[in-house]
Design brief:
By secondary structure, the chain is an alpha/beta fold. The chain has helices at 56-63, 86-92, 113-123, 130-143, 160-172, 190-207, 218-224, 242-247, 252-259, 300-304; strands spanning 6-15, 30-40, 45-49, 71-76, 79-80, 96-99, 178-182, 210-215, 227-232, 235-241, 310-313, 316-318. An 8-stranded mixed beta sheet has the order 6-7-8-3-9-10-12-11, with helices on both faces. Strands 2-1-4-5 form a 4-stranded antiparallel beta sheet, with helices on one face.
């Protein structure tokens, strides 16, 4: 079996509130990611989907070691990121990059496009000298669909979609083998979203890098993902190939999300699943299954026992007591 490019085991992150007076009890922390096991194969796109606040972006940053996990470990190309020295971790950055959600806030307004895109080339010693840097930047801009003449302008001169292309050019400049795209199209017009998704697909086919694509729009994910992981309150509740997850979702939360995806034919028969109640606070996680407070299938066992993420079909896992095969017998 081929070793995955990236593997996470028991990954968790708790954000603690600022410390107060020594004699005042500090409130419990916010658990953003809770015991995530994950693998990303070489040259594949794994999409992570879920509602806002479910921990998707935190997970992406943990995998890149942009923030330190509270628990668990991450291996990248066979190396434990937690055991790397600051120097080795810096070298790892050449092979693992990120495209940020906000194309406006992720680019310095004081720097030209050439300076922004050339930064990783200079940091990792890929190109030296003004002429070599400008030639490399021109090539990168053309790869993402921008003219080379754009390099001497500032980000304020570009539209949102063009700025995201600049961010992508910066992310691929060092030739990474792993890219985290953190909701790269959520801040863009619908007409531009498809262009950026198609661009990422073309670049991935060309560069053969793996991609963790974070999104909340399942319609977008369907076009780019090889596999899909569904998150709820910091936990992965279902993961599998996109055809399996979209065609036969096993977790009630996945079923509810998919029932809300718009379809080309509005008259086609469908059953809309409307979830009751609000998402619980990560500060006060429910016992047992985190989804049981909103689940239409919930039974007493759901509030008592946390379901493990288990295989329910070939290559498809779900964390639900009642997912096939071998569901827990219903007890009223």
């Amino acid at each position: 079996m081929t070793e995955p490019l990236l593997r996470a085991e028991g990954l968790g992150k708790v954000f603690l509130p600022p410390g107060g007076l020594p004699f005042v009890q500090r409130p419990a922390g916010l658990r953003a990611v809770d015991g995530v096991d994950l693998e990303v194969a070489r040259a594949e796109t794994l999409a992570v989907v879920g509602e806002s606040g479910c921990g998707k972006s935190t997970l992406g940053r943990l995998l890149l070691r942009l923030i330190v996990p509270s628990e668990g470990r991450v291996w990248f190309e066979g190396r434990d990121l937690g055991a790397l020295s600051p120097r080795d971790l810096r070298q790892m950055r050449q092979h693992a990059q990120m495209v940020f959600q906000d194309p406006f806030g992720s680019l310095s307004p004081r720097r030209t496009v050439a300076q922004i895109v050339a930064e990783p080339l200079e940091v990792f010693g890929i190109a030296r000298g003004r002429r070599a840097l400008r030639d490399r930047v021109a090539t990168l801009l053309e790869r993402v669909g921008l003219p080379a003449a754009a390099m001497d302008r500032h980000p304020r001169s570009f539209s949102g979609g063009q700025r995201q292309r600049i961010g992508i050019a910066r992310a691929i400049a060092a030739g990474p083998s792993f890219l985290v795209a953190d909701e790269p199209v959520s801040a863009l017009d619908v007409s531009v979203q498809a262009q950026i998704v198609n661009l990422l697909q073309d670049l991935q086919a060309e560069g053969r890098f793996s991609c963790l694509f974070i999104a909340h729009d399942l319609a977008v994910v369907r076009h780019i993902a090889d596999r899909v992981a569904v998150m709820y309150l910091g936990r992965i509740v279902e993961i599998g190939g996109k055809h399996a997850v979209y065609g036969a979702p096993q977790h009630p939360y996945t079923q509810a999300l998919l029932s809300a995806v718009p379809r080309p034919d509005p008259d086609a028969p469908r059953r809309r699943i409307v979830l009751e109640g609000d998402v619980p606070s990560p500060n006060r996680m429910p016992t047992g299954c985190a989804f049981h407070t909103r689940c239409p299938l919930a039974q007493p066992v759901c509030s008592r026992e946390r379901p493990a993420l288990r295989e329910v079909a070939t290559g498809q896992q779900a964390a639900c007591h009642f997912a096939a095969p071998n569901p827990v017998p219903v007890k009223v």
